Amino acid sequence: MVNYLCHVCDTTFSVDITRYKCECGSPLNLTQSEIYFPIEEIKNRDNNLWRYREALPIANESSIVSLNEGMTPLIPASSSACDHRLKLDFVFPTGSYKDRGASILLSKAREIGIREVVEDSSGNAGAAIAAYSAKADIDCTIYCPSTTSAGKLTQISMHGAKLKLIEGSRAHTTQAVLQATGTTFYASHNWNPFFLEGTKTLAFEITEQLGWKAPDGVICPVGFGSIYLGLYIGFKQLYDQKIIKKIPRLLGVQSEACCPIYQTYHYNQPKITKMALRHETLAEGIISELPVRSKMIMEAMNTTDGAFTIVSEENIKDGIKILAKQGIYVEPTSAVIVKAFDHFTQTKIIRGNDLIVSVLTGSGLKATDKLTKMLST
Ligand SMILES: [Zn+2]
Question: What sign results for the dihedral spanned by CA atoms 95, 98, 104, 107?
């Protein structure tokens, strides 16, 4: 039986409640449930993330809310620096990897009888929660910053969710939703640990697609850390089950405009401290002045010998163009990985015989307004 567990004060809570954090204010994790990977059976299952059924904490088949998401393509990148692959994790029903978390989180909500959810988002998580709420026939309200890309806002509304636009920073949006939560289920991709149970399947897929072998490193954009932490949880479970021999180095990328985790890494500080947004950035999906799960991000970075880098606005624009010329159309937040790969190669964090996977997180179609503006300047 899975329970919530506070890893700061060790208090446990039943998951059958609308609680989203511990009494001590910390985010909640899950107690380890029984998991295993029947590899031969998995090979013959449907090509979606529910193929790892025994590793996912949903008890009842009838609770599953799925749009056949997952098993996104893993393709070779054009690189001479090392064996570099791209995980096209925007090939999802809503156009971003957030469907991984939304599928598991809404399945859990349905399992415990939730009828209404609220969520705050820079756009993609909101679209995913709205879509899976629609599929589950659960009422949904999404809070977004007023600067969110128009495409994402339209998508949220189209799924029938109520949309609340909040002026000010991303943090103001979170403050607004917290005032509204009350007794309503907070389907937060940052606070609710069931979301990470979905994003961890990214690690399973990468490993399976490489022949049940872990890469040497994985590069991903990091704001609140839902991919970074999902990768950590997923690879750790595979390691604990002796499926892989090592946990890959987790290599995070932040925008120079807001990079509290990079600062901590670069200056070798013991904990992540708040950093105000310096200026607007194209990488709207990774603006996080202080990630909710800071302590766990530090643990993931330290345990995996991870590293962080930052990219400038020019780096992001270059990344978008370089990928587009290879036929890959992603939103600016995803494109950070292109120059990040170069930075990690230059600093010899990536070496010549490494196998590296970079995660592309959101479709370019999500940010048509911002990309159109970029083309005309
Ligand atoms: Zn606690």
Answer: negative
Query: What's the predicted TM-score (pTM) here?
Result: 0.95
Contact 20, 7 (CB under 8 A): no
Both 329 and 181 in one domain: the answer is no
Q: How far is the CA of 345 from the centre of ligand 1 (A)?
A: 40
The predicted-structure confidence for 115-155, as pLDDT tens digits, reads as follows 999 999 888 999 999 999 999 999 999 999 998 888 889 99
Maximum CA pair distance of the chain? Answer: 55
Look at residues 142, 172, 193 and tell me which one is the last residue of a structural domain.
193
pLDDT digits (tens, 9 = 90+) for 148-178: 888 889 999 999 999 999 998 878 898 889 8
Instruction: Give me ligand 1 centre to Cα 11, in Å.
Output: 6
Write the pLDDT tens digit of every residue in 288-326. Answer: 999 999 999 999 999 999 999 999 999 999 999 999 999
Q: How many angstroms does the Cα of residue 105 sit away from the middle of ligand 1?
A: 21
Tell me how far CA of residue 210 lies from CA of 64, 87, 281, 355, in angstroms. 27, 11, 34, 10
> What is the CA(7)–ligand 1 centre distance, in A?
7
Average pLDDT over residues 186-190: 92
**Co-location of 120 and 165 in the same domain:** yes
- Look at residue 121 in the predicted model and tell me its pLDDT: 87
Residues 222 and 368 in one domain: yes
Interval between CA 2 and ligand 1 midpoint (Å): 17
The Å distance, Cα 15 to ligand 1 centre, comes to: 15
Q: State in Å: Cα 369 to ligand 1 middle.
A: 42
The Cα–Cα gap between 181 and 21 comes to 12
Going from the Cα of 305 to the center of ligand 1, the distance in angstroms, rounded, reads 27
Task: Identify the domain containing residue 145 by its residue range.
Answer: 98-193
- Number of domains composing the chain: 3
Residue 265 Cα to ligand 1 midpoint, Å, equals 26
CATH number, domain at 279?
3.40.50.1100
Give residue 27 CA to ligand 1 midpoint distance, Å.
8
298 domain residue, yes or no:
yes
